Sequence to fold (746 residues):
Amino acid sequence: MTTVVDSTVNPLAGYEDEERGLEPAGRGNGKRPRGGQRFSRQLLWFALPALVFYVFVVVVPTLRGGLLAFTNWDGLSQAYEFIGIDNFVRVFTEPAALQALGTTLIIAAAITVFQNLIGLLLALGVNSRIKSRNVLRVVFFAPVVITPVVVAYLWKFMLTPEGAVNSALGGLGLGSLQQDWLGNPTLALVSVIFVAVWQNAGFSMVIFLAGLQSIPQELMEAAEVDGAGAWRRFRSVVWPLLAPATTINLMLTVIAGLKMFSEVFVLTGGGPGTATQTLSTLIYKSAFQFNEFAYSIALALVLAVIVAVISGAQYRLANRKDQF
Amino acid sequence: MTFKKTIAVAGLAVTALALAGCAGGGSDTASGGDPNTLTIATTSSNQTAMDAVIAAYKEANPELDVTVNYADTEQYQTTLRTQLSSGTAPDVFTAWAGSGNPGAIDILQAAGYLADLSDSPWVDQVQPDVADSLKIDGKTYGLPSKLDAVGAIYNQGTLDGLGLIAPTTWDELLTFCGDVKDAGKVAFSLGAQTPWVTQLIDYALVANTVYADDPEFDQELAAGDATFVGSGWEDAMNQYLEMNEAGCFNENVLGTDVNASYAALNNGDAVAVVQVLASFPQIQSTAAEGTEYGFFALPANDTGTTRIPTGIGVSYALNAKAKNTDAGQAFIDWLGTPEAITTWFEASPGIPAIPTEGVVTNPVISGAEAIIAAGDTAPFPDQSWPSAKVQDAHLTGVQELFSGQKKVEDVLAGLDAAYGSN
Fold:
């Protein structure tokens, strides 16, 4: 989240001012941009050690790893052969991979819709003048700061047939709603989505809340004076001004949904059967259980491209909308 | 020197330092190998026994610095593979017979990571059929430590309380399930949410429906002369489902995990659980003091003789690129001595793979031992499978049978496909 915010601030802003002071005459002659360029080239030398480190620790291994997707490496042997795009063909033809892809998209779509909807409602709620709003903000945000694996284990425990959820339903006289939450293929998928939304709705709430608090009070008052009702004010004032927060939230939830691993891994392990198998859990299985490291890299690359394309498209769409 | 140049020089200097640092780190790890250190890795289920054995070994070798790492099986296998391929694996580690899982000897040896143990002193003491499953091309690559078997581990108190006796035929089994259910209890608690648990009842059944008539089934599969479809596996899976219909299991088996199944056995809600012997120490550890257990083979037919799947549960291999090969070899050899074996099984009950006098035992272990001694055994089916994919197809397949998503034929076709894809 912080990187998103930081990128809007020019880290060179202070230096530019200083340069302006040093070379006031250069501005009109078009020299300033060159001066700025020269200065950032000097800054590059400062960055060099970190860049070299980054290249060796991140870029080279990533490219080497990516290259392995075109081999038959099993993750263990010293030797491997290049086999072209066979692994990628498998990704798009093997039923297990296609099913995992479908499940991943369902999860991503559901999380995007529900997490943002609930996050927005929570934000509107705690942005109002109710007395306990600070307490509520903390309560709603609390799940976000717990490790996802811990949250998933807690819910796994509560969602067992004799667990807290079924006991609570029984206690409320809703015994007919008791279910085998993680044992039924459809409900297992619903449960995974529910747990992810439960944990992360507070995160979306905080971003929406920041957006809400940046809306000038005068605009709201003006709308009120003009006779706009609550819905009208939300539709015409709040919602358009919330666009930046919505954009960030949508992107982050789509990415998180597509990458979904820990909740699935802990709650269902991809089961029952393969009902909740996502691309991420399939990548894990292929790499570490099935001796098919190269294939798992191909899966991972496909997932990376899907994430990039969907979030990129979303970003462009949202940017166009921002300029209302 | 201008400001710019100074910065450039400083940048290069720092970069050079950073790179030198990397190179230095590399040469350090390559040179490793203190003669007084020994590194070992095994699964958490062996922790009690391994701790006891190491304590005894350290007493005899006080100068040796032993490091042991424990992890749950799945994590262990993942970590081991990564360590082996990056050259950071321990000297001695647990490996599995056959080729059916990611830590199996055939798979690790094919990649060149296992040292040849054929000249070790214990090699002659291992029974031939056990020894064979740790050999590749006539060479031994593992010390067999513990045998394992699959059967019904039952709560003696619960069984006695119901006034029932253990079933010995398939018909008796179904009647048994009905009687237990009528008494308001569960005959076999099944935690099928935990994937590896789903395979155990199939394994117990195929010991009889497949291997009793066709001991060569594994070889026929490998040669392409047999398939899962149309074999005794079909009977086994149908019987598995028949048991479910007869009310042998708890409700919501897919929402129940392995620990919940142990709890049901221990608190008297269930009479028995079909499990590997390796799980017995854990079952026992969560029970009330004085709980007594027994063991019976899960009957699959009406002949009155029931085979149980038996194989090597735990074995130890020596890293071909060990930092300390001598210490590793010495430790493995010591694990094969009567002293170490007695210590091991005193700490954690089980069947020693190298027959040893004076090993303490209990009713569950001796129950299984008696069946093995009578020769009523069958192999663990997965040991001969070419990769973990077949097992995964089985585990997910059983869950899909129970959730009604798939039929027996579809699951078996999936097993054939997974077997053939390697």
